[in-house]
Specification:
The protein is mostly helical and 218 residues long. A hairpin with a 5-residue loop joins strand 3 and strand 4.
């Protein structure tokens, strides 16, 4: 029995070890976001619309899916996130006209649908809060030196409290984590149920094996 528990613990530890080995080299601030916090997701959706969608898209998400998951009606999301410029069945696309990004930024801004799955919420949070001005007054970022992306949260950083600035970055990271895998909470809950079932099955199988072999001499 102890051997089976050890094997089970070993396989549980593998994903954690792999994540640690493949992590980024910079020191990341913990985002401490919470996918169950729907108020944070709603604020993040509005902030993403206001500060990110001028350049970036979330082409794998539709407005009506977001509304259903975070607790808005179709009318509310069209008003609060799309500002009545899109239909509720539309994909979440950038408001930037084609060709403008290359002319102004020199690069096409990436789609952010899967950015949280690619880099993690701690990276997003650290990146949003990592802007600083060098001796020439030019903005740069500790997490991604030489980035073409401007400090979109500069207004909040300058005019709001440090807590509000941190919360804004956390809300955006939270929303982007949700968008990267909208069914994550359901998958996680189902995963624990499956693990619990397998553990019960393991115990039953162990005692069944002992019962079968009880009268057999080794």
């Amino acid at each position: 029995m102890k051997k089976l528990v050890w094997i089970f613990s070993f396989f549980l530890a593998l994903p954690i070890a792999a994540q640690a080995a493949g992590g980024p080299s910079i020191e990341l601030e913990p985002a401490q976001n919470n996918l169950r916090d729907q108020d944070s997701l709603k604020r993040g959706a509005i902030l993403f619309s206001n500060y990110c969608m001028a350049c970036h898209s979330m082409k794998y998400m539709r407005y009506n899916r977001i509304a259903r998951d975070i607790g808005w009606s179709n009318e509310e999301i069209v008003e609060k996130m799309a500002y009545n410029m899109n239909k509720v069945v539309d994909d979440v696309k950038t408001r930037m006209l084609p060709g403008v990004a290359m002319e102004v930024l020199g690069v096409e801004p990436p789609d952010l649908s899967l950015m949280a799955r690619l880099r993690g919420t701690d990276y997003i949070y650290t990146f949003l809060r990592g802007y600083y001005q060098d001796e020439n007054g030019k903005w740069d970022n500790h997490a991604l030196a030489g980035t073409s992306m401007p400090n979109v949260l500069e207004g909040i950083q300058r005019h709001a409290s440090a807590e509000d600035y941190a919360q804004a970055a956390r809300d955006i990271a939270n929303f982007m984590e949700y968008a990267g895998e909208p069914a994550k909470l359901q998958r996680t809950e189902l995963g624990w149920k499956v693990i619990a079932f397998l553990l019960v099955l393991l115990v039953l199988t162990y005692f069944l094996k002992k019962e079968y072999w009880r009268d057999i001499k080794h």
